[in-house]
Structures are given as structure tokens and as C-alpha cells.
Amino acid sequence: MSVRKAVPxxxxxLGRRGYVALGGATAGARVLPDFIMIGGQRCGxxxxxxxxxxxxxxxxPTFHKGINYFDVNYDRGFDWYRGxxxxxxxxxxxxxxxxxxxxxxxxxxxxxxxxAMERLAREMPDVKLVAMxxxxxxxxxxxxxxxxxxxxxxxxxxxxxxxxDERLLGEYDRMRRDPTYESFTHRHHAYRRRGDYxxxxxxxxxLFPREQLHIxxxxxFFEQPGQEFAALGAFLGLGSVSPQRFDRxxxxxxxxxxxxxxxxxxxxxxxxxxxxxxxxxxxTPPWSLTREPAA
Length: 295
What we know:
Elements (H helix, E strand, L loop, with lengths): L8 H17 L9 E5 L5 H9 L4 E2 L9 H4 L5 H5 L5 H8 L6 E5 L9 H8 L4 E6 L2 H14 L7 H12 L2 H7 L6 H5 L8 H9 L7 E5 H6 L1 H12 L23 H22 L4 H5 L5
Helix pairs in contact: 11-14
């Protein structure tokens, strides 16, 4: 029996660049997303992405889960972005037995990036948005584990929290002055600020009508995935097909528990933020319902 040899990564990159270049030349014939998963980071978006890929109507970008156009690749131009998606005729052929194609992409950075949603609203004002939220205390620690494992963080969690404001000082202004500037620390070291969901969603709702935004909570998705997936499918206009199983991806086991001091510090920070989020969405987040009140 023959064994298929893996294509070397340099050849894969070359193939992707060639495809995207061709895609840019045929941009007008390509599909655009009907919806975009905008984050948040470490909130279960990869698991949801994989579940969506099980639906026969759903069409993803050709190579990547996330293109990162509206955050770090915006200077490449809209035709470059369109080049990542299939031809319209190909997408229709792929889903013809199940209904019209429903196209999407995902980036865990879109929601937090200070200018991505403004760019998105300018380019695709009618697109639907899916935001996944998680207990911001647990999300912060999960993000630190993720960045540490990738080699992007060398400090322990307590130190990283203490350094966050200093690290991010001036980064927003530099990003505003230079659209091509990619802030490494804003993207990889904002453990606490990424959990300030109310700030991010308020900005989004100034740009998009509420009916174009679907909020999911990772706690509920992992507890009752079938029910949450069905609600998302109704929002997206998908046929009632559900994956046979829902797997959890990208979970990182803790080498050690979060320190009590870091947990208390974060819980205190997010207390008001969670109240604002509840007021904004007219719903108490599930983590606020289960967390014991502070002494």
C-alpha cells in the first residue's frame, strides 16, 4: 500500500502564495463571507470552527482558519483578501445538494484589535458576526498558558499581569499612526484587557446593528453543544444538520493552578466589567451565575 508523503512546509507556503495571487486576479468571481467569527481568543473558537466545518452548507477559506486581513494584513488590499476564498461556482457546486453556500472565516484577534471592526464595517457592512465569550478570569490564564507554550511569553502569570499596562503603553497610538504596524505585545500580552468584553462589544454595536451579532458563551457551548449549535445555525440560516460529536480542541492542561492572588486580582477587576456586560446584553453571563460572591 502506498503512503502519501507530506508536502514540505516551504512548498506548502509557495503553493498558498500562488493560489492567493491567482485568487486576487480573479477576486470578482470569488465568494465573500456571510459571517465571521471575531473572537474571543481562548474562548473555544477553534472547537466551534471544527463543528461548523461538519455542516455541508458551510464553506471556509481555502487554506487558513483565519486570514487576519482586518487586523494585521489590511495593507494587502481587499482583492488579496478575496483571493483566499473559493470561486463562486465552486462553492455552489460543493453545497448544491444541501442548499446555498454559507461562507465564513475566523480570527480570534478581530474583536480586540482597535481598528479591525471599523475596517470590517466599511468593507462588508452586512456581514453577520459571531462572538464567543468565556469567563474572563479563566480566559486570561488560558491565554498566558497558550502564549507561554508558543514561546511568546517568558514571565510567570502574576508577573505578566503586573507588566500588562506597562507593556501596552503607547501601542494603541502607534497602531493608529501606522496601519502597517503589528503590535506584538498588544496581540500576545493583553491577558486582562482582552476580557473587557463590554468595551469591545460596545464598539462593535456602534458599527453594526444588534441583529447581525450572535453572542455565544463557551461554558454553555461545551455543556450543551447541540442546543447552542442549533441556535447558531438558526441565526446563520443553516439547514438543521448537527455534528455527530463535538470535540474540544486546543485545550492546554495547567502545569499549575492560577495563584490565589492573581485570581483575586482578576476577579476584582472584572466585577464591574461583568455588570456592564450584563446590562449591555440584557443577560447575566454564565460565569457570574456560578461564581461564589467575594467575601
